[in-house]
TrEMBL record:
This is Interferon lambda receptor 1. One of its GO terms (cellular component) is plasma membrane. The keyword Iron does not apply. InterPro entries: FN3_dom, FN3_sf, Ig-like_fold, Interferon/interleukin_rcp_dom, Type-II_Cytokine-TF_Rcpt. The keyword Protein biosynthesis does not apply. It comes from Aptenodytes patagonicus (King penguin). Transmembrane segments: none annotated. GO terms for molecular function: cytokine receptor activity. CDD domains: FN3.
């Protein structure tokens, strides 16, 4: 039809990052400045049915967060994206298949540390999308004296639970760090968070 095609998006990847499932891509070489992108996804439950993603239609961004669009976290999905400019469009480009439950990658939690007289209260907050809050996310917590390799470990704490540490016998600078953990087919863990250090000094 003599129809000029736009260059297709490149490096189309379905990426699990920090508890989210995100489709990412880069603009095709020579894309016009006004190019926008439209994304659809397909689940292995219903092959050959590509489902629209309302918040990723004619977007300028080169990524689309699919986490809370996924119909089932235990089934593999893939996504596709095309470029659009005026009345021209590129061919669709598909990603590989990924499954949230198996492929999710964890970010370290953020620690909230509250120092009382002889106690420290610690809880961890997770950068979770609301649709995955029901999963049984856990965290492991380490406590150690600054400069020491000897770490006290608190493992498998349910995400919403606070850890209370008796500091009566502790003096000096103590550090805390945590990682997210999740039991799927095998155990997944994030890296440890940046340490939070507190001065514990009991006079008298």
């Amino acid at each position: 039809s003599g129809h000029v095609q736009l260059p297709p998006p490149q490096n189309v990847t379905l990426l699990s990052k920090d508890f989210d499932m995100i489709l990412t891509w880069t603009p095709g070489e020579g894309s016009p400045p006004d190019v926008t992108y439209t994304v659809r996804y397909e689940s292995q439950e219903r092959m050959d049915k590509w489902i629209k993603v309302p918040h990723c239609k004619n977007i300028r961004s080169t990524s689309c967060n699919l986490t809370c669009v996924l119909p089932n976290f235990f089934v593999k999905v893939r996504a596709r994206v095309k470029a659009v400019s005026g009345r021209f469009q590129s061919p669709w480009v598909e990603s590989q298949f990924k499954e949230y439950y198996l492929d999710v990658e964890l970010a370290p939690p953020v620690l909230n540390v509250n120092v009382k007289k002889n106690l420290i209260h610690v809880n961890a907050s997770f950068p979770l999308a609301t649709c995955v809050e029901s999963f049984s996310w856990m965290y492991d917590l380490n406590l150690w004296e600054a400069g020491s390799e000897d770490k006290k470990q608190y493992e498998g704490i349910f995400r919403k639970n606070t850890v209370t540490i008796d500091t009566t016998a502790l003096r000096g600078n103590y550090c805390l760090s945590a990682r997210s953990s999740f039991q799927s087919i095998d155990f997944k863990r994030s890296k440890f968070s940046q340490p939070v250090c507190v001065l514990l000094n009991h006079k008298g």
